Amino acid sequence: MVAALWRRWSAWVLVAVGLVAVAEGTALSLGGSPLLAPVLGLLLLAAAELGIWSIERSTTGAESAAVLRFRALRLAAVGGVGCVVGFGLLLVADLPLRGGFELTGIGVLAAIAIPALALWLARDALRSGVRR
User: Fold this and answer.
1) Residue range 69-86, pLDDT digits in tens
2) Which of 69, 72, 82, 89 is nearest to 121 (CA)?
3) Quick check: pTM over 0.85?
4) Which of 6, 34, 85, 96 is the most exposed place for a label (fewest CB within 10 A)?
């Protein structure tokens, strides 16, 4: 991450964050505790956003305080919602429930809703194409 920021390689910021995420996923799959996974997800999101903000080419000098405040509040809101959802999933995963039609239906709805939500959140980027 430091090299990516120092050399202003925006693509490598995401690679660095991805490597940390893969390492955490590997640790979880090998039996590590998932209790802090939502917080780690928030920190990875913050690291990626702050890294991209720091080397973003489209900015022309200091941004207005309103733009910075909006970006920070949006990052905090998305991160907070992500943590709440992540901890909620951890709580649901620990419930002693058996599978069945209801839980399968919830899983199917989640499998449809999550990509739909991601596409809805990325609608501006999809309309204008990925900027480099």
Assistant:
1) 888 888 889 889 988 988
2) 82
3) no
4) 96
